[in-house]
Amino acid sequence: MMVLIKGAGDLATGIAYRLKKSGFDIVMTEIHKPTTVRRTVAFSQAVFDNEIAIEGIKGVKVNNINEIYEEIREGNIPIIDEKAEIIKELRPDVVVDAIIAKKNLGTSIEDAPIVIGVGPGFEAKVDCHLVVETKRGHYLGKVIEEGSAIPNTGVPGNIGGYTKERIIRASSNGKIKPVVAIGDFVKKGDIVAYIDGVEVLAEIDGIVRGMLQEGIEVFKGMKSGDIDPRCEKDHCFTISDKARSIGGGVLEAIMYMNNNLNL
C-alpha cells in the first residue's frame, strides 16, 4: 500500500516513521519553505538539505514521479513539493493530512480509498474517513470514527511544568537568524536569535529543542523555536512521544479501514 502524507513536519515524520517500519510505501509533500521548528526530527528538512536521516530512515527531496519510485525502491521516503501535479498520478491507497494547520486546507474524503485527518479541522465521515487526536493528554492518538478532534486551545502542552513559556516566539516581523543551535543549553533571558536585528530571548532555562531555519520570514508572535526544560539532549534528535503516539493512531486507523475495505 502507498501512503501519501501531506506535510513533513515533526508530527508527520512520527507518522511516516511508524508506517514505514510497518511496511508501507510512503510519499510526503511539503511547502517550498517549511516552517518546521523541530528540524532535526522532521523530513521537511530535506527541502533545505536534499536529504535527512531520522532514526535510520532516510528522507530524500525529489522532483518527479520517476525519482519518487526510485527512492521507494531504495527504501527511502521521497519528499516532493506540495504543488507538484504528479501527486495526482500516484493514486495512493491512503492520504493522511498531517499538515497540522488546525483547519482543513483542501483534503477531501474522495482523495483516496482511505483518508485520515490528523488533529483539529477535520470531521470523520465528512471530509475524511477517520480523525486522529493530537492534543496531549488522555486521548492523544485516539482514532475518532465520528466527529472531530478537540479544538485547538492555543496553549502548548505542558512539558516539565511549562506551557507557553517554552515556546520561542518572533519578537518582530522579518527574517530570523538563530544564534544558538538545536541541542544548546540556554538560560532565561539569553539571546537565542535575531529578527532583522531585533533580539529574541529565551523565557526559561533549558535545551533548545527546535529552531527555525535561518532566513525564514516570520511575523511577530510566530512560533520560531522550542525550549525543553527537561534538558535531555537526546530528545532533540529523536522522535517525540507525541509524534509516536499520533503515528500509532494513524497506523490503527489505516488497518481498521483496510480490514473493512479489503484493499
Feature tags:
5 helices, alpha/beta, 4-stranded antiparallel beta sheet, 263 residues, globular
Q: How would you characterize the overall build of this protein?
A:
This protein has helices at 10-21, 46-49, 65-73, 87-90, 241-261; strands at residues 2-6, 25-30, 51-54, 57-61, 77-81, 94-97, 114-118, 130-132, 143-144, 167-169, 174-178, 185-186, 191-195, 198-201, 206-211, 217-218, 223-228. The strands form three sheets. Strands 3-4-5-2-1-6-7-8-9 form a nine-stranded mixed β-sheet, sandwiched between helices. Strands 10-17-15-12 form a four-stranded antiparallel β-sheet, with no helix packed on it. A four-stranded antiparallel β-sheet has the order 14-13-11-16, with no helix packed on it. The protein starts with a strand and ends with a helix. It has 263 residues and is α/β, with parallel strands linked by helices. Helix content is 19%, strand content 27%. Helix 1 (10-21) crosses helix 5. It is globular. The model has no long low-confidence stretch (mean pLDDT 94). The longest helix is centred in the last third of the chain and has 21 residues, at 241-261.
Total count of strands: 17
Rg measurement, Å: 18 Å
End-to-end distance? 8 Å
Helical content (DSSP H or I, runs of 4+)? 10-25%
What is the number of helices?
5
The whole-number mean of residue pLDDT values reads 94
* Low-confidence spans: none
Order of helices and strands: EHEHEEHEHEEEEEEEEEEEEH
The largest pleated sheet is described as: 9 strands, mixed
> How would you sum up the global shape?
globular
Bin the strand percentage.
25-35%
Strand order of the largest sheet: 3-4-5-2-1-6-7-8-9
Q: Which structural class fits the helix and strand makeup?
A: alpha/beta
